[in-house]
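Worked example
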Amino acid sequence: KGQISDFQRKQLTTVCSDSVEVVTFEGGGDDMDLPIKNILASSSSSSSSFEVVESKTKTTSRRRRLCGVNSYNIGRPLAQMIHFIWTYLRVVEQIGVEPGNPDITIDIVIPTGAMGNIAGGYMAKQMGLPINYLCAGVNVNDITHRVLETGKFYRSNEMIKTMSDAINVQMPYNFERLLFYLTGQNHGLVNGWMKTVDSTNKLDLDKTWHEKLRQEFRSARITDEEMCNAMKRARDELSFFADPHTSVALSAAEKLGYRLFQPLGDEEESSIDTAPVVAIMATASPCKFEETVTAALGKDGWDDYFEKSFPENAKDLLDTEEMPPTLYRWDKDMSLDDVQKVWEHHSREIIRTKFDCQVG
């Protein structure tokens, strides 16, 4: 609750269907992960996920399983692999070289929260896509940056609200996938690491694995002020309206030395002959973030965007009536463990009563 924009909320609360139940919860963006993980795990393993269907002629059983569509589902990064392949093909097309040229690799900068998108990129690289560095642009919820800098994967004590709220993450669950491929698919080693994370909320990579991680990935930590500056410069210098998360990636690219904008002050301009080829992943539309775009570009900037670039089909959503969501409260005398158990129970009841599906 309160962690997404008004437009994002309306994308959920304007869906009128008996097959949809919208729920909001009090807490940080990671706090619902464990209840969802438990429900999905029990759905896939429980015999109660079979439904008996009777007719006049026969009785059959039909499997009914729940499925998550966030990046904890392997289907999400698998689909995102296509974005990286498409990006590589467009980049080599623009610079005039043949795909697969062994002398050309590209670096890609990605707005990064739960690490699902960057996991898709790494999976594509494992399959042979000529990517050099995958670079994570993160906000001040910076666990990804910290582990790349120090080898310490430590959950922070609190979620800090930022203007790039979709990448506000304390514990990116796709880090496990990166480690899996980094170690050559060493199940036992990664399983041991993740058990340590589950029990302590931290992991210390030794020097060898930390260095291997840094050979594949780079990162930069971006403040709200830096993000807003990048959004303004993208509009002014590139004639491009960027959303807050893409602006994090743009600012991260600058901080990592990829010169996208005109040099400021005593900054040195990179030589076009020596600068690496880089692509920036734009991962959302500015139409969903009026408050942040207005803060960065001013009201006139938002009005200019709304007039010139706001998607026509998105305008229909602005005046659509909303249905109030179900609220999962967090009584402040309850611990996170206790409230997660309550939320899990409520979710199971919704699944059982509304969708006639018993799990666990």
Notes: Strands lie at 23-25, 50-54, 59-63, 106-111, 131-138, 152-154, 202-204, 217-221, 278-280, 326-328. The chain has 13 helices and ten strands. The two ends are 27 Å apart (CA to CA). Residues 75-95 form the longest helix (21 residues).
